[in-house]
Amino acid sequence: MDLVFGLLWLLTVFLEGVYCQGVYASPTVRIVHSGHACNIEEERYTERVYTIREGETLELTCLVTGHPRPQIRWTKTAGSASDRFQDSSVFNETLRITNIQRHQGGRYYCKAENGLGSPAIKSIRVDVYYLDDPIVTVHQSIGEAKEQFYYERTVFLRCVANSNPPVRYSWRRGREVLSQGSDKGVEIYEPFFTQGETKILKLKNLRPQDYANYSCIASVRNVCGIPDKNILFRLTNKTASPTIKLLGDDPVVVNPGQTVTLVCIASDREPTPTLTWVRNTETLPEKSVLNGGTLTLPAVTSEDAGVYSCVANNNVGNPAKKSTTVVVRALKKGRFWITPDPYHNDDNIQIGREVKISCQVEATPPEELMFSWLKNGRALRSSERMVITQTDPDVSPGTTNLDIIDLKFTDFGTYTCMASLKGGGIPEISIDVNISSTTVPPLFFSSLVPPNLTVPRGKSPLVTQEGDTVELQCLVSGKPKPIILWSRADKEAPMPDGNMQTESYDGILRIVNVSREMTGSYRCQTSQYNGFNVKPREAIVELIVQYPPTVEPVFTEIRQGLARTFPMSCRVLRAHPSRVLKYEWRLGSRLLNAGQFDSQDETEYSVRSLSREGYGEYSCDIINEAGAGRCSFLVTGKAYPPEFYYDTYSPLWQNRPRVYAFKLQWTQMNPNAVDRIMAYRLGIRQTGQQRWWEQEIPIEGMIQKGELITYNLTELIKPEAYEVRLTPITRFGEGDSTIRIVKYSGVRRGEEILMGAHVRSGGTSPINPHLREFHCSFEEEPICMFTQEKSDDFDWTRHSAATRDTKYTPNTGPSSDRSGSKQGFYMYIETSRPRMEGDKARLLSPTFNIAPKNPYGTTNSAYCFSFYYHMYGKHIGTLNAYLRLKAQTMTESPIWTLSGNQGDRWKQAKVNIHPTAAFQMVLEGVRGPGIEGDIAIDDVTIEEGECGDPPPNLRSSAPSNAPPICHLCVTLLLALFVNRR
Question: Under a CB-based contact definition with an 8 Å cutoff, are residues 351 and 443 in contact?
Fold first, then answer.
């Protein structure tokens, strides 16, 4: 029987073991969503992107498996997962945030663990979309402070709207849609310094039709169902920045408990200004009552005192501001001290000598302070032996003194200092000083003990580490015990609490979270308010704060190909202590090298013949007693991203009636930095679709820097737009990708260059080629299809006065564009090093066809070429203009030249040209003898017909083969296209 039970027990244990092995499992996790989502991208690299509109409900659920049941924890990379949880965690399967706000976007993590294996972690990125109402502000280039916007002034309307994704702006004047080039008096641009966040409408030299209603429409293209938002601004000849005035006295002096009313009145301006009040640039007291421009402060206290400012804003020019000071009358508790015999070296007060009793009171306002003295409750008048003075130049303001000449026993008694304010309303302050036979022996006051100050042994110097809490201590004695004042002894700097002096009643200065900047000498000294007017006692405490090394570089990415050799260097900028420093080089967690610094301040590690195992994150820890500073180097073989080439001829063409094709062109950024690029992965998808279609483009041989690579995209459905992604592939794997949008727009043969400009600039319709005038002010990045000559010495640079750095060449170049705007753009040649005298920069216009033949069989080939130039600086070289004809053989003829300093102003050049074939204009800047020779150009124009009133030029000529002008020609159109197929 025992054998049977034993077998049954063994069978039970075996079955339990099998069962348990099958039931226990490490956790797995995945994230599902509900609530309001605009878009959910499919999982990529273990992360999903969840797009939601601001104000909707975010609901994410973490589904897990495993036994025992895993514990689930939601966390967020920054801040808390929900405003309701301050520990940055939510221990729950479902994360729910109602009325989600923009700051709550970010990456959320779900972590599940049950003690078996590693925790399971999944993440999802939440992107909160929003569009705020746009705001239009108006500024004037000249006379900003004038009473109104005068005729013949330039006005800027700036539109701003916060959004995610980035906002697009459009302008309307009444019902008319404004666009660049639609009106000569209007320019629309995005200033460089705003990085695309604002759109500016520039009205040049106001005309009567410019006084109108302007609408700024902000759009995120209905992403997440967010509708467009717009704002209306009415510009009239009465539009002006606000002015205001304050009624009443300044300052306003009141007693505590009274009510203060401040009235602010704004002038009648358009638009009507809004009025706001602030106190000391901060918010108003909670009890404040606002009614339009009237601010009421009921039952004021001393805490309500301060400078109150009324600000008027109507989004035109700068806000107007007026301020007044509210003074709350007050008396604060006073102090007294006794000055001993000035003719003796000790601190004792002796009978028969002079004694001074000083009384100090803090009063607001100080000019209303009044003092009186009592002896034993009776008024004390100034006499030969009892001298009362109201001020003392040797002590702080608000002080009165009672000098007792030849102190006698009959002078014993209670002396009272009474302080009050003129006009009453504030309770008086009284301070009693007792001098009696019990406190004054025949020879001196034994009840007063002079102060003494020392630093305890071992408390200086005091060594601590950054982030710790430290206590600086001085021992003080005396009767009465004086207050200790702490200050910096080694430099004129505030104390940790922000004040220049810090009071301490026990002689201890406590510093929380000490930082390296707090290293130095601290002075502790006695205040004079312990009954003696003696020289303050003081002592010095040295504080030494140790901190980990500060190093550079903190992070660097290094891209290298296999079998390469390269060094990495980590440098110490500062550390304390700096005598004993160790370094450790690691790849991941593997120790590569370690050692100690001697006298050098950097350490270097070289990788010899990089292998696949050598890719990864290298770190160099430089260590002292306080901790470590780390340099990190990410070594990767990823290829740099390709760069799409936009300035191409005929990039887009019609293929068949239902489809079109696109010539994709690109160059490779730093192709020799890593291994040879073997292929590109081309991804293409219709805009708005989820699925990518991918294929590989093989590459033979090495790609040279600047080499143009071409691939034809065919079978693109009209009129759809496509998103194209290009990823380089090396032996290491995929590199960085580049994405662009290809848009279709119908074009005719011979006008393809216009479509290329359209795709590049992101417009909504092709540029109309039939123009009577070509004008370029360089406000947009494509610079009107101008190109740089590839065979010259250097390039022209597009810039604006607001962003150009003239630190090294301050006495050259323009201070604004031709129109006077510091935000407007122009082209200039930068003549600083490495430029040499005689170097040339050549800027080429687009290629223009001459006008077609008229019915009489002749052509009108007369055009006016004009531009503005700025040639200011003592080293100005030469500015040349050439006419380049693109006939069977290309010819180039000089038509205009100018050299030397022309002054700090813009001037216009005009010259007649008579091309006989397709032509380009060439603007050539030649560097002078020094760096103060920046030449600038702006507002380049080509108009049909002869120039009217051309200004005098140093040289102006037409080609010798130019035909005479035909006066019978009808109005001809300037056809703009590139003579290339």
Answer: yes
Range with lowest mean pLDDT among 38-52, 177-191, 235-249, 577-591: 38-52
Cβ contact 714:730 at 8 Å: no
871 within 8 A of 844, measured Cβ to Cβ: no
Residue 566 DSSP symbol: E
* Residue 895, CA distances (Å) to 581, 892, 921, 922 in order: 69, 10, 10, 10
Helix count and strand count (H, E) for the chain:
2, 72
Token digits for 523? 């002075």
On whether the pTM is more than 0.70, the answer is no
Let me know the angle formed at the C-alpha of 588 by 587 and 592, rounded to the nearest 5 degrees. 30
CB contact set of 790 (below 8 Å; sequence gap of 6+): none
Tokens of 536: 């303050």
For residue 664, what are the contacts with CB-CB under 8 A and spacing of at least 6?
644, 710, 711, 712, 713, 724, 726, 742
Determine how many CB atoms are found less than 10 A away from the CB of residue 51: 19
Report CA dihedral (873, 878, 879, 884) to the nearest 10 degrees. Answer: -170
Phi, psi torsion values for 801, nearest 5 degrees: -65, -30
Burial of 161 (0-12, 13-18, 19+ CB in 10 A): buried
Q: How many CA atoms lie within 13 A of 285 on its CB side?
A: 19
Q: What is the DSSP letter of 19?
A: H
SS (H, E, C) 14-36: HHHHHHHHHHCEEEEEEEEEEEC
Top-ranked range on mean pLDDT: pick from 151-165, 411-425, 880-894, 928-942 = 928-942
**Two tokens, residue 311:** 């600000």
pLDDT over 60 at 190, yes or no: yes
Q: What is the DSSP letter of 674?
A: S
3-state secondary structure of 759: helix
Residue 662 parent element (H or E): strand 659-668
Helix (H, G, I), strand (E, B) or coil at 760: helix
What is the residue-wise DSSP string for 208-251?
GGGSSEEEEEEE-TTGGGPPPEEEEEE--TTB----EEEES-SS
Pick the more confident residue, 164 or 958: 164
